[in-house]
């Protein structure tokens, strides 16, 4: 096994096997839950600005829909593989179950490098990919959303393409849209808000003073930046942040908005005035209260797990910690609030957006964030309850809770015919 995606998928499947064993699930049900219900691979030909045609490969993996329509984001990234998308689809099934949303799990991806493409090339890619998967998605079938390197604009193009194909405006086909075309207030910062709630709750439960708690964040995209902003507003101290080009450290605390202004100007957080430049590796190993990996998978691995010095890791990204690293962190007493709980704020507000679209009404930002906060606190407590009931860490506790809920749904529905 050499590919990154394959390793990631193996990790996700192994963790599931462990949970299935603890829950004593029967063999057939295990097999059923390990196999995605539908896997779609499409070619996405795009006329590039130069006039030549490039063919990209796109995927949509629908893992399970026993608890409701498939739900999950679409990522554009050069490293996208079918194995990676499959692993992420399975994680979505567990995530929607942890926060008890009436959704299943799916994920999509197109292997491309959006950083090297123009806006109109990305638009044509998005529209053609949407057309290619239009028959398998739908407001009551499968509802996409943003993920790595896709954003509200991408979602607007998906909505428009789908609506054109169906001949009717269909905002409920996708979540994470701009607010003026049916997006929800609070959706853009929802994942980060959920991450911040997890930091707050973890501080409470693990008795770490929240005021001035030191926080390092890997990744300064939508999730990392907004988490920094919210946690800073709430009184924590953001001591280090990074992006794909490198990181910065300032023990006195950074002002997230100022760092963002600098990143907009220079395309990176690196060389921010008053801060020391550090590498991404160094950021992960800082002596801080909370470490928030908010970039991509497999960042905390067997290679660096014994050097991590954070008290608690709150996973803003999907799959940032490998299962080998998990074991080392557990032995060293480092707590991990796992991805399927920590970053579930995004899909939670996606659910609120979808409901608002279906019913053609709007919630205020305050109402959205209040509901999100309540849902995250409830899920956090339920995960802790499962962890202590089974005497396992939070990752296993969250998975046990999720798999239990999904298995219960599958068992009630039965296998047809
Ligand atoms: N891509 C996000 C995630 O991984 C959001 C998914 C959604 O809102 O459907 O959770």
Walk me through the structure.
With 417 residues, the protein is an alpha/beta fold. Among the domains are: 38-171, 3-Layer(aba) Sandwich (Rossmann fold); 190-342, NAD(P)-binding Rossmann-like Domain (Rossmann fold, 3-Layer(aba) Sandwich), CATH 3.40.50. Helix content is 46%, strand content 17%. It has 14 helices and 12 strands. The protein has helices at 4-22, 27-34, 82-98, 119-133, 152-166, 190-205, 222-233, 256-266, 280-284, 323-331, 339-342, 345-359, 365-390, 394-413; strands at 38-47, 53-64, 70-77, 105-111, 142-146, 214-218, 237-243, 246-249, 276-278, 290-293, 312-314, 335-337. The chain has a 7-stranded mixed sheet with strand order 9-8-7-6-10-11-12, with helices on both faces. Strands 1-2-4-3-5 form a 5-stranded mixed sheet. Strand 3 (70-77), helix 3 and strand 4 form a beta-alpha-beta unit. Helix 6 (190-205) packs across helix 12 and helix 6 (190-205) packs across helix 13 (365-390). The longest helix is centred in the last third of the chain and has 26 residues, at 365-390. The radius of gyration is 20 Å and the shape is globular. The mean pLDDT is 97. Glutamic acid is lined by residues 71-73, 95, 145, 147, 175, 318, 343, 346-347, 350.
